[in-house]
UniProtKB/TrEMBL annotation:
It comes from the Eukaryota. This is Metalloreductase STEAP1-like. Keywords: Membrane, Transmembrane, Transmembrane helix. InterPro entries: Fe3_Rdtase_TM_dom, STEAP_metalloreductase. The gene is STEAP1. Residues 124-257 form the Ferric oxidoreductase domain.
Length: 344
């Protein structure tokens, strides 16, 4: 338990510090980073505060330069990343699921784009973003173990990555939520109803009385259940990242929810995808144009993250990390940079 706590100091303390500082300077939240408080009168800043002014009546005051106001600056990179990932997965799935049958079997399956293809893109992006939330913490721990000190600055890219974990996590939840809604809509589709009728007809023609396949039934019951559990935990994580809620938690509570439950969500969603895949792993028909199916690609990063985490909770590594995070340093280590920007 403590081992986890220490491990996640690194991941969560910066988040909490940022939350607290945000709380104490509320105006900055609304005004963005590029605006200095002194440039605005109290009236103007009140006018800009969405909590004190109705959005419908909003007009930009003449003394405020709109360009100086940031537009969700912390979301730019996570959003770009999600869009790029979505486009890549969409193209990949389109080539495999739509273009391949069209070219090689002359089958028109373009009707799959709005729901079935979309519902491959959404979960793959969701699980990848979730893995990206936990990967920097692992890299930071490895770096600290390697350097044998906490008094050494992380590379800038790692710091930046750590600071956008909240946004990545919320985006992951958003994609997962959409995925769940799309999945639950499957039986409503007309294409599904026609397919069901066709299967029933074929069954009658083949004189099959019972279409029940035991292991397929189990597979679906299990993977849907795992998906629901994972989504529920993600919802909890998203709720606790609301400043009002997170400010009401102490450090240990916040860390427990954001880290332990986060890893739990990652584990459950990986298990969800693995059980969904079931025996498809060994089935060559899923390797269209020699490319692996998307569920295989989707689980690679989460499995790497989970394996690394498993290694990092081994007792001797945990002990060393804990010592390092309490200020202990390996004698051979040279401090290269001051500790001004160090995460706990
Ligand atoms: C209420 C919750 C959920 C339900 C009902 C659900 C349902 C499904 C269904 C029906 C599929 C098969 C899709 C298909 O036939 O193409 C699927 C696949 C998948 N789901 Fe979920 N899911 C849920 C939550 C999640 C969550 C939270 C994640 C991850 C963050 C996730 C990740 C995946 C992945 C990676 C796949 C494999 C997609 C592929 O074929 O490439 N799911 N899920």
């Amino acid at each position: 338990m403590n081992a986890h706590t220490d491990d996640l100091c690194i991941e969560e303390c910066d988040g909490i510090l940022r939350m607290k500082s945000k709380k104490s300077s509320r105006d900055h939240i609304h005004l963005g980073t590029g605006v200095q408080d002194s440039t605005l009168t109290n009236t103007a800043s009140q006018f800009l505060d969405p909590h004190t002014f109705a959005f419908e009546d909003f007009e930009c005051p003449s003394n405020v330069n709109k360009e100086n106001l940031g537009l969700f600056p912390q979301w730019h990179l996570p959003l770009k990343l999600s869009i790029i990932l979505s486009v890549i997965v969409f193209i990949y799935t389109f080539l495999r699921d739509i273009l391949h049958p069209f070219i090689s079997l002359s089958k028109n399956e373009f009707y799959k784009i709005p729901i079935l293809v979309m519902n491959k893109v959404l979960p793959v992006v969701a699980i990848t973003l979730l893995a990206l939330v936990y990967l920097p913490g692992i890299l930071a721990a490895v770096l600290q173990l390697h350097r044998g000190t906490k008094y050494s600055r992380f590379p800038n890219w790692l710091q930046r990555w750590m600071l956008m974990r909240k946004q990545l996590g919320l985006l992951s939840f958003f994609f997962a939520l959409l995925h769940a809604v799309y999945s639950l809509c499957y039986p409503m589709r007309r294409s599904y109803r026609y397919k069901l009728l066709n299967w029933a007809y074929q069954q009658v023609m083949q004189n099959i009385e019972n279409a029940w396949i035991e292991d397929d039934v189990w597979r679906m019951e299990i993977y849907v259940s795992l998906g629901i559990l994972s989504l529920a935990i993600l919802a909890l994580l998203a709720t606790t990242s609301i400043p009002y809620v997170s400010n009401s938690l102490n450090w240990r509570e916040f860390q427990c929810v954001q880290s332990k439950m986060g890893y739990c969500a990652l584990l459950l969603s990986t298990a969800h995808a693995l059980v969904y895949a079931w025996r498809k792993w060994a089935d060559l028909k899923y390797f269209v144009w020699y490319t692996p199916p998307s569920f295989m690609i989707a689980v690679v990063l989460p499995i790497i993250v989970l394996l690394c985490k498993t290694v990092l909770v081994l007792p001797w590594l945990v002990k060393k990390l804990r010592k390092i995070r309490h200020g202990w340093e390996e004698t051979s280590t040279s401090k290269t940079e001051p500790a001004e920007n160090v995460f706990l």
